[in-house]
Amino acid sequence: MRNIILGLIVIFLATSCLDSEKKIHIQRIDELTSQLDSLEQSYKAMPLDSFSYIRETALNNENKIKLYFSEDTIDVEFARAMNRYKAIRKGSKFIMQKRNFLDTVFTFQHSQLEKLKTDIQNGVGKRDKYATYVDAELDNQSMIIQSFNDFEKRYAFMRNEFYEINPLVEDKLKIYMERD
User: Fold this and answer.
1) d(CA 28, CA 67)
2) Is a pLDDT exceeding 60 seen at residue 17?
3) Cβ contacts of residue 51 below 8 Å, gap of 6+?
4) Per-residue pLDDT band at 25 (split at 50, 70, 90)
5) Fewer CB in 10 Å around end: N or C, the chain?
6) d(CA 164, CA 96)
7) Domain-wise residue ranges, the chain
8) Do 148 and 43 meet the contact criterion of CB atoms below 8 Å apart?
């Protein structure tokens, strides 16, 4: 009888330890999910619709200037503006790649976190690997955060550059087009 009671106590303690570990893992996953939700909301709040306008306008204006510009000399301010336009065009490839990545990675990461949480709640898989799996998702999320920060910084820079130089370029373009 004594051995049975002692055995039950050991089993109870072992299960309660497993439950507390389970709760810790689930809590970490909930924190990661909350962080991901916040990041995704920040991404969706960005004025991404202006990206197409910026890219197309810069490309069209560059092409028009190539068509209408015929002077042998060019003023320095306009040359710098055109160089900045080229940088916008070239930088837009990075923006598009990061945007495509972020558009898919949020959904994928949500799915991964939800699957891991369900597996832990149901006791599926090796319990001793749960911490490793949660740490792996933490690493994945760190890469997503870094990608978002890079995207956000470059996108803001590109938008600022465009809205700063576009009036000058369009004014010069009007002058060149009127000459023809």
Assistant:
1) 58
2) no
3) 92, 95, 99, 155
4) very high
5) N
6) 21
7) 22-179
8) yes
